[in-house]
Write a structure and sequence with these properties.
single chain, 2 domains, two-stranded antiparallel ribbon, globular
Amino acid sequence: MKTRIITAFLIIACVIPPLVFGGVLLYALLSFIIVAGGLELMALREQKDETWPLLIKPLAIACVFALTFIKKDALLFPLLGIFVLCFLSLPVFTERFHAKDGFLCIAYITFFFIIARGFLHIYDRNPLYVWYIIVATYGCDTGAYFCGRFLGKHKMNPRISPKKTWEGAFGGWLLGAALSFALAYFLIDTMTLPQILAASLILTITGQIGDLAFSAIKRNFGIKDFSDLLPGHGGVLDRVDSLVFNFICFDLILVVLTL
């Protein structure tokens, strides 16, 4: 527990300055998540004693960077299409790269590209939106943990996550929604109260779905954590699983609100 707490404080100390000051620090934080998360995701292949052909990992990561930081939006989907075709074609040229590897690379590139672009879009609209999403996500995690620990009786999905309970999920939903609503009520003036309430209730559901989705991936590969990069917390993906779902969902919410 001591290690977990120390790591948590270090994570907070590394995350707050980029979110407050933006600029190069923000891009550095996002780049770290893209690289570390990508390596963790692609390491799943190595759980089955299979190694990647040389340069495939850095090539896939470079594709995400290209899609994330390109300035001309008109090039995004043509460029993504080219990357998809390239990775689907690689098995034709090397026996070490299988068709399933191509799909894994495409999944990584597409997923992280959507997350990164969505995050930047949200931050550019209003940096407080990012704090709102963080409070909704981790407020939900906190509420789910304590309610599940002291009140949990009915298992939610033992096949995927044996420790999660419906009582914990409900407690997390209430706390996450309440905290995020309070933050938005006092600090965000670009959303109406009904919009804030609806978004808070949605994010505290989608965040838990994201947690379960990533748990299902780990269960499928027989691992407890994606890595041990963050002592006591697992890997980067273990920390941002709920968060990435919520960034994607909130980006959609912003689009709907502007229709």
